[in-house]
Design goal:
By secondary structure, the protein is mostly beta strands. The chain has two helices and 51 strands. Helices cover 5% and strands 43% of the residues. The radius of gyration is 52 Å and the shape is flat. The termini are far apart. This is Neuroglian. Keywords: Disulfide bond, Membrane, Repeat, Transmembrane, Transmembrane helix.
Amino acid sequence: MFKKVVIRQVRYNFLLAHTYITDGPEDYEVEARTPATFRCNAVADESLHLEIFWLKNDQLIDFEGEPRFVKSSDYSLTIAKTIELDSGTYTCLAKTELDEASAKAQLTVQDVPYPPTMKDVQCHTKDATINWIPMGDNRAPILYYIIQYNTSFTPEEWKDAYSHVPSAEMTYNVPMSPWANYTFRVIAVNKIGSSAPSPHSEVCSTLPEVPHKNPDNVKGEGDRPDNLVVTWTPMPQIEHNAPGFKYRVYWKRDIAGKDYEYQEILDYKQDRLVVPNQPSFKQYRIKVIAVNELGEANVAPQDLIGYSGESEPEQAPTNFTLLVIQGPTTALLSWDPVPLTSVKGHFKGYKIKTWSETSLISKEIQVQGGNSKALVSNFDPYTKNYAQVYVFNERYNGPPSETLSFDTPEGVPGEMQDLEAIPLGSSAFLLKWEKPDKPNGILTGYNIYYAEVDSSMKVDQPVPRNPQITEANRKRAKLGGLKSGTKYRIYISATTVAGESKRFFIERQTKPMGFHKPSEPSFEWDIQKDSLSAAVRVHWIPNEDGNPGSHFFVKYKKKGEPQYLTTPPEKNEDFLIVPGLETATIYDFVVTSVDGLHQTDSEPQEVSTYDVDGPIIRAKENVATAGWFIGMMLAIAFLLLVLIIVCIFKRNRGGKYAVHEREQANGRHDYPDEGGFHEYSQP
């Protein structure tokens, strides 16, 4: 609502524009303790000084004295942490020295209701009449009331007697239990929340009576083979209705002519009775009665069926048979059921345990009810599997049947978990992988697929690599013919005669178009017998630590010839076969890595085709330059040098013969006269 006060005045024969409000405050309804903001903008003649003031209920707001009230630089008024007393009429006053304009808005701050006042309580034999007076809704209408009570049994705990008493009511009847002291209070509720509780009422006391109910949730189920356990939900004191409260527990075998036995439980908090020395898994009749000093409950107890504790089943299923193998993991089994009397408990069904030669960890399935046939689908493919069946009750498994064994056919391999893609130049990847952990048969090869991934992460339809891998022992392959600087999703799956495994994938991006020479490659080779000639299978080994290049070709020539022959570039594989070579000939081979317009040659290797009828010949390291050969020759030379030094040392010691020392050690010897020249004999 806008109000304009206009003052016309002419100064120096000029007509001035009126002051008016362009954006006035609007009525506001807000929840207490939340902020409220009024906005106001005005326009005045540009020759006049304009000021904006805020008023509450026609009184100028003192912003220094009311720190919760803030006027911002845009003239808006904000009230922080509103309270109900902030409700009222707020005025935006735009004023110049000649005229003024104003606009008003209403603020309504809503809060939870004021606590009701307890008027009185009228105590009767079995109920009480509560009277209260509402004390104000705090600008949000009362929706309903909550009547609560507590008793001398739980004086600190208030419970709802009624949680939605209509707002028009201010008198209500509340039932009371016998032998209890009650007090009451009332809470008002509006859309903001609940009021504080009213003051509590005077005390209402009731007279004792017999219990009005018996315990709930009575059950009988042994927890050992030789006992019966009767359980129930304990009754709170408010349900005792008189002093001397206790439980009377009855039980008997459910056979003709048996009488009830009973035992009294004096602790009202107790929730069970264990009856020992009972036969295993027998049917009983049980009941639990609430009793106080005035007598038993005034309602009949439930007569329920219970059982003593279960024990282990006594018999194993017989005639355990393999009916048919339906697949690598599935077989149909059957057995003859056991007599129910041998189960010694609640019959729940049968369990089938399986394991295999490749996995000693057993698996188990449950066959519910009385079925004596099951389709089992957790066997391991392509191995010998074992199975046993046994009956079970709620607590125990029975003895197992005879062990059944059979062989399963091949299945599809398990999903592969390892794939690596190394960029080769700007248009290819070198793929490396490991065999699946679960081949589930004889591997026949691998299938590789690839698909482009665009900038929005949309994946194109996968394209199969051509050709696919048909060698089970192969663990690497080249994926070529790709776009440079493009993200691809690369899939791999293993195959057996049963089919293809689930595809495992990674996402990798090819490199941008290269401008650098590839790093020096290396290669391995095999001799292969052709019909009338020899052939060499060359395996390219790109330099993965540098720039490997995107593809390769082979140069070769006879030993001693000047000119190399060149194969076509191989862009799809990391190997090629050079056919049509002469037998019994030595060739020089070089592998050339290519990336765009750049090429790098490997070191040449000699390839001999002399023994093409023998076993496959792998490329061997040149013995003359091999590190192990050089090291061995150095070691032999060192040992020869040591041996020569020892011999020279021994020779020098042997040239000086100490006669005197030897005679001292061995004594002087007289030799017999053998004739000859006696001039040289001893005197």
